[in-house]
Specification:
Helix content: 25-40%
CATH architecture of the largest domain: 3-Layer(aba) Sandwich
Number of strands: 15
Number of domains: 2
Shape: globular
CATH superfamily of the largest domain: Vaccinia Virus protein VP39
Number of helices: 12
Largest sheet: 9 strands, mixed
Distance between the termini: 37 Å
Strand content: 15-25%
CATH class of the largest domain: Alpha Beta
Order of helices and strands: HHEHHHEHEHEEHEHEHEEEHEEEHEE
Amino acid sequence: MTQWTIKLYKKLIKGAASDIVHLFEKSVRIQPESSSHLEFGDTRYTNIVVDSAFQTRRRTGIKKELISRVINEQVFPTRAFYMTEDGAMLWIDLTKDISYGFYRHSVVLLKDNSTELANEINKYIDTPYPDIISLGSGDGAKDYIIISKLVEETKSDVQEGCLTYYPIDYSYDLIIEAIGTMSRQMRPGTYKIKAIVGDMHELRSFKYVYDAAQNRNVFFLLGNTIGNNDEKEIVHALNASLDAGDMALIEVNTDQTSNVNDHIKSTKNMEHNAVVLSMLGITADYTRFEWPVRQGLSLCPGTLTVETIYRVEKDDRNHLSNLSVDHHRIPSTIKRIHISFNHRYNFNSFCEWISNTLSCTIVWKKERDQVGLVLLGRPPQNKAITKTETT
C-alpha cells in the first residue's frame, strides 16, 4: 500500500465515514507495490475491515413506525434504540455503568470459559475453521473474548485459511466500534472481517455474504439480545439461517429476582430510552418511567418480563395527539407508551425450549451469577458440506 494510495482513499472517504479514515491511518501497513492481492476481509496489510455489506432498506420511516407502535400499544423495535449516534454511544456508556451487573458478570463468565468453549466448537465443526456471525455485535468486546481463543486453539494441523468474523449491527457507529475492538487486539493475518450493516431479523438475506467461505458457521447471540423486544423475530431468523453442522452460542439474563438496583431502572438506561422518545418529540421526564413485571410475554415457558413503560401526562398528550400515520392518529386519551421488554429466563426451561425450537442439541451450557450461556449445534448431515446461496 503506497502513500499515494492512502491519500487517494482519504479524498474519496468523506462525511460520516471519517471514523473509518481514522482507523485506516492507524492500522494501514505501508508496503511497496506488490504482486500480492487482497482477498475479501484480508488483514495481511491492514488490520481493519476492507470489505463490508450494507443494507439500504428500512433506514427511513422510523418515526412513522414508532407512531404506529404507540397507536397499537406495542413496544418499540429494538433497532430504534441503536440507529442514532446518541443511542449507540449511550449503550456503550451503559455497559460501563456500575448498575449493569449482568454485563459485568457475563464478561467474566465468557472469559472463564473461553478455552472450553473454543475447544467444544472446534471439536463439533467439521471444517478447519469456524466463521463467526455475531447478531447485534455491539462494540465487539464479548465477541473478541471467544474469537481470540478460537484462533489460539485452532487445530494444529491447519495450514491454510482462517476464521472470518461477520459482525452484524444496525448501527454504523457500533460496527465501527467492533472493527476497532478487533483491530486493536487481534494479530493481523489470523482472521478476516466482513462487517454487515443491517437488520439481524433479515439474517437469511445476508446468507450469500457470510457463506462465501466454506467454513461452518457459529452464530453469536450475546448480551440477552434474544431477550429484548424482538424475541420472536430473532428466533425465526436464526432458525431459518442455521444449516446442518452449524452452531449457536446464546447468552441470556436469568435474574428473576425483584431488584431495585436493576440496570433497567438506572439513569443511564433511562437516558437510552429518552433517545427514542425524542424521535416522537418528547423530552423525557425520568419520574414517569415505570417497570411492571409480567408473565406470559415470552415464547419461552417460565419467563418473567420486565416491561418499561412511559407514563403520558397532559403536556405530552396534547403533542402526541397531533401525530398520525396512514390517517390513524394517536388518541388524545393515551395514558402510556410501551417502550421495551426485557425477558428474564429460567435457564433450564430456556435451554430445553431453544434447543427444541432450533432443532439443535445442547453441546455445552453453564449458568452463574444470573447469566446463562448455552452452546447449541444443529446435527450435521452424513454428507459433504455444501453451502447454498439464498434464492
